Automatic annotation (TrEMBL):
ABC transporter domain segment(s): 36-267
Stored SUPFAM superfamilies: P-loop containing nucleoside triphosphate hydrolases
Stated family: Belongs to the ABC transporter superfamily.
Name this protein carries in UniProt: ABC transporter ATP-binding protein
Gene3D superfamilies: P-loop containing nucleotide triphosphate hydrolases
Keyword Signal: no
EC number: 3.6.3.-
Pfam families with a match to the protein in the record: ABC_tran
CDD domains reported in the protein's UniProt record: ABC_NrtD_SsuB_transporters
Catalytic EC class: hydrolase
Length: 278
């Protein structure tokens, strides 16, 4: 079912838990959904000293099922752009469309994962994941089944009743990913989701994100500071420049998966991107 994994660093073991996890594919119709259009989007914040232009005329089309990474220096507006796409901030100029429909507010069809897991400490993994159903009409029985399936998908079987303080950093991020997946999104918006993890956990979760993307065809839009991670995962890498945030260039990554970090094509793209920030 899954493509064989490439373990690109010594010491990385196959993730047995997720390898064995039952796959509950999302409905096939979802696989043709998840297109995003960012059209001439600008965003300013009102500061005491005057307006701060953070995003300046950003345009980008993300195809359904595409994996796009966004890289750029600190403060160039990466998180701001993701918040707009999530529907968390309606105050911007331009147009944002999800499958042709203007984005207005948050919704289960766009899952959001942050750098910090943002799990509620007083709720179990199961309860945290189930929170996505708040204010929805999904029946109780279906909620329970979908929560259990997503917990299994991210390899947290046996931890449904655990509290966040009983989880490692990587496990907490898996729970956060399960919470985003339980709504069966066609787009995942990932804001540095692996940024707080140790290097080995990070490599493993990169593999799992790739597998999730390949299995489910979810559109992925991921902000990352890690150029290596962007080249490992993305179809295209959007390089933003700062003050104000603008698209400097878009780097395609036409390499087959699973990608080998030592491969000449990989190294050439990575080095080219590093030069952008030299
Ligand atoms: N709510 C806000 N009010 C005022 N300014 C803000 C607000 N949110 C973000 N900013 C400013 O907008 C700019 C872009 O912030 P943003 O968090 O989007 O950048 P980023 O590229 O994600 O940065 P980093 O890589 O450091 O996380 C920064 O100058 C920040 O100070």
């Amino acid at each position: 079912m899954n493509a064989p994994l490439a373990y690109t660093a010594p010491g990385i073991e196959p993730d047995v838990a997720t390898e064995r996890a039952p796959r509950v594919p999302f409905p096939a119709a979802r696989r043709r959904a998840g297109g995003l259009v960012i059209e001439h989007v600008s965003k300013s914040f009102a500061l005491k000293s005057g307006p701060l232009l953070v995003l300046d005329d950003i345009s980008l089309t993300v195809e359904p099922g595409e994996f796009v990474a966004i890289v750029g220096g600190s403060g160039c507006g990466k998180s701001t752009l993701l918040r707009l796409l999530a529907g968390l901030d309606p105050d911007y100029q331009g147009r944002l469309l999800h499958d042709g429909v203007p984005i207005a507010g948050t919704g289960l069809q766009r899952g959001l994962v942050f750098q910090d897991h943002r799990l509620f400490p007083w709720l179990t993994v199961e309860q945290n994941v189930g929170l996505s159903f708040t204010n929805t009409s999904v029946p109780e029985q279906e909620r329970r089944e979908r929560v259990a399936a997503e917990i299994a998908r991210v390899g947290l079987d046996g931890f449904a009743d655990a509290y966040p303080h009983q989880l490692s950093g990587g496990m907490s991020q898996r729970a956060a990913i399960a919470r985003a997946l339980v709504g069966r999104p066609d787009v995942l918006l990932l804001d540095e989701p692996l940024g707080s993890l140790d290097a080995l956990t990070r490599l493993r979760l990169q593999q799992e994100l790739r597998r999730l993307w390949q299995d489910e065809g979810i559109t992925m839009l991921m902000v990352t500071h890690d150029i290596d991670e962007a080249v490992y995962l993305a179809d295209r890498i959007v390089v933003l420049e700062a003050r104000p945030g603008r698209v400097r260039r878009i780097q395609p990554v036409p390499l087959p998966h699973p990608r080998q970090r030592g491969q000449a094509g990989f190294v050439a793209i990575r080095d080219g991107l590093h030069a952008d920030f030299a």
